[in-house]
Amino acid sequence: MSLTAFALNCSLKTPNDDEKSSTDRLLADLLAALVPHGVKGEIVRVLEYDIKPGVLSDMGKGDAWPQLRKKIVAADIFVLGLPIWMGQPSSVAKRVMERMDAFLSEADDSGRMPAAGKVALVAIVGNEDGAHHCHAECFQALNDVGFTIPANGGVYWVGEAMGSVNYVDLPGTPEKVVEMIDMAASNAAHLAKVLKAGTYPGVPQ
User: Where, by residue number, does the polypeptide cross the bilayer (predicted)?
Assistant: First the structure.
């Protein structure tokens, strides 16, 4: 069974920034780990799009969110990638989750939201503590709007506090991070196959 993954890079670095993105590297590592499980993926940097603030699926003229929303709900696996800033998920990631709030009012006749039957992973990088806290915030929001979280669905790398070495600077991926990525990819692909074969029945309204 072929599957698709769509990843959003919620880095604060602009598309024109010459500095490489650690979030991009972690997402690339994760999508590469999904390939052996029959998953083809795409990574998009959110700041390449004009995502308006709000809690609707379309905030009107100039809003680029509908393009990304379409790809999110079309994919079997959605990956939210973000850096930690001041112990919190990046503001870009928070805007993405705020826009998904619209899913709550877009349920079908059986109460299933657009993300029903879709799997979500969260990938986090940072040079400060807070990965588990950020995972908790993101998973709670993603689950609220209908995504299914697989076992060990969070991957992260956190460097030395206030250090200058970022994930993108590492000569190789640490063994424990590789194990974490491989487990998340395997579990996500397995769960996505199960849900694609037979999604949630929902509750008749």
Answer: none
